[in-house]
Write a structure and sequence with these properties.
With 218 residues, this protein is mainly β. The chain has four helices and eleven strands. Strands 1, 2, 3, 4, 5, 6, 7, 8, 9, 10 and 11 form an eleven-stranded mixed β-sheet that branches.
Length: 218
Amino acid sequence: MEIKIIFENKDILVVEKPPKVPCQSDKTSDEDLMSMINRPYLGLIHRLDRPVGGVMVYAKNKKANSNLSTQVSQRKLHKEYMAVVCGKPENPKGELRDYLKKLRTVNMSKVVDKDTIGAKQAILEYEVLETIDTEEYGILSLLRIILKTGRHHQIRVQLSNGGFPIWGDNKYNKTFVKKKTWTQIALWAHKITFEEPTKKINSTFTSLPYDEYPWNIF
């Protein structure tokens, strides 16, 4: 599989992660993105869920790795997603604030009370870009999502809990949990902005979803 390189210099490598490919090696032993890229040094700065595609940045040396990791911890690395959801939020723009707990045995997360042991706050902003009434799935909405925190399955579980689960999500959308066939989740890492380690300037890189359903109805 050929990986699309969006940008590269001596410090960073920005690529488009294909859906269904893990960011790094895991227990499945399936081919992973870092192995496909095959550089002398690659530092994993952030992750995308395996089913999700979109823009990712890797560090190409230890200094850049440390710099970018600090930006992540200080929430200076900004990530924006696109998603197609079932239904339509009541408000065209909004913020979701929840507390999430990771359920390690089933590789899922759930919304819990803030006093629950292991609970972590999750914050995201969303904006409805377009809404279409479909024959098979009813109302579908295209959302822009700005991630304020980086929790396990955060976007997926927060949107589901909010009443507008992501199309194709086999874990958090009841319509697709019931389906016997696998479906590609309509969640895409669209934009990433950060300060380049050496140049010290803010740069933004983008990636667009594939031309396939349900993206191509919008």
